[in-house]
Write a structure and sequence with these properties.
This protein has 320 residues and is of the alpha/beta class. It folds into 3 domains: 98 residues, Elongation Factor Tu (Ef-tu), domain 3 (Beta Barrel), CATH 2.40.30.10; 110 residues, Rossmann fold (3-Layer(aba) Sandwich), CATH 3.40.50; 86 residues, Ubiquitin-like (UB roll) (Roll). It is built from 7 helices and 17 strands. Strands 1, 2, 3, 4, 5, 6 and 7 form a 7-stranded antiparallel beta sheet that branches. It has a 5-stranded parallel beta sheet with strand order 10-9-8-11-12, sandwiched between helices. The protein has a 5-stranded mixed beta sheet with strand order 14-13-17-15-16. Helix 5 links the parallel strand 11 and strand 12. The longest helix is centred in the middle third of the chain and has 13 residues. The two termini are 18 Å apart.
């Protein structure tokens, strides 16, 4: 589904920046300047057919100073639901797509005295504009970048020239790993931690920070995990009396949009809480895959995050 406030852009450059990883440059079809963004922001790209069968979020990896075009860096996921596969295999130079305006759920804390950035693989993307922004602001920071091997991760060479001693690289083929406890233990008060990459890296950093007494508000993270597939199910909307089928590889949010309904959403990854909808009836099991609801809220069965969570049972009725 194409949203009313979407921006129509044209693909003006495609470059392979690492194995199975491509950079796409997007410029407004009408040649106008695109909205300003800060490091950590993402856009949602409408992919697939004319109805926008998929709307996937991608972090902006270009310069925040560049108003002429946006850049996204996309890893061809082995278990792609269609988004990364579509971009890698079907999108060509000159093609037009629709995108949302930038949304930032992973911003730098302007009051931080020091910033520790942790990236794993494709999780480097938000830190490309973030490091540029921190340099412009003369902020103290260090970037720790975990990758499989030399040349296997995007932008390593560029970051080496940009950051110098502030960049620390860890290669798994050399059995190098980030010692999270040692890294976080020696940081001064007022330091903020930012993590993006595989679930294991994010969870490890969060747990290490908490164990060392880091305040929760000083630990920031962005997850890239896509919603899991599941059994098809049907949902009924109480306010409109619509009955909508949700496919095996389709999210509840996507099914609602496909049916012409526009529920609220921002991150489309189960982190921000924007897409939470109250549940009136659930004759079955709510399958919560978000990172927002507490265990108590999940157990209550009072709401569901439509962007990632699913349902298994006879009847699901939402207050929408």
């Amino acid at each position: 589904m194409i949203h009313a406030h979407d921006i129509r852009v044209r693909v003006t450059a495609i470059e392979e920046v690492a194995p199975r990883t491509k950079r796409f440059r997007l410029q407004a079809v009408d040649s106008s300047h695109l909205p300003q963004f800060a490091g950590g922001a993402h856009i949602t790209v409408a992919l697939g057919d004319d109805d926008g069968a998929l709307r996937n979020p991608y972090t902006l990896s270009g310069s925040p100073q560049d108003r002429v075009g946006y850049e996204i860096t996309v890893l061809r996921a082995a278990d792609s639901r269609g988004g990364s596969a579509f971009l890698h295999e079907q999108v060509v130079l000159g093609q037009e797509v629709s995108i949302s305006a930038p949304i930032n759920l992973f911003p730098i804390n302007a009051l931080g005295r020091r910033h520790v950035l942790l990236a794993g693989g494709i999780g480097i993307t938000p830190f490309m504009p973030i490091t540029e922004q921190l340099i412009d602001l003369s902020q103290k920071f260090e970037l720790h970048y975990a990758m499989r091997s030399d040349g296997a991760a995007p932008y390593e060479t560029l970051l080496r020239s940009r950051l110098g001693h502030r960049l620390h690289v860890y290669r798994s083929d050399l059995r190098e790993r980030i010692n999270l406890e040692s890294l976080l233990e020696g940081q001064p008060l007022g330091t903020h931690l930012y993590v993006c990459g595989p679930e294991r890296l994010i969870d490890g950093a969060i747990n290490a920070g908490k164990a060392l007494g880091w305040p929760g508000e000083n630990i920031h993270f962005e997850r890239f995990a896509g919603p899991p597939p599941g059994d098809p199910f049907e949902v009924r909307l109480a306010k409109s009396s619509k009955a909508i089928a949700v496919g095996q590889h389709q999210t509840l949010l996507e099914a609602l949009e496909r049916a012409g309904v526009e529920p609220p959403s921002l991150c489309r990854g189960g982190a921000c809480g924007q897409c939470e909808i109250p549940v009136i009836k659930a004759d079955g099991e709510l399958l919560h895959y978000d990172h927002f609801l507490s265990e108590e809220a999940r157990s209550s069965g009072r709401s569901i995050m439509t962007c990632v969570s699913r349902f298994k049972g006879r009847e699901l009725v939402l207050d929408f």
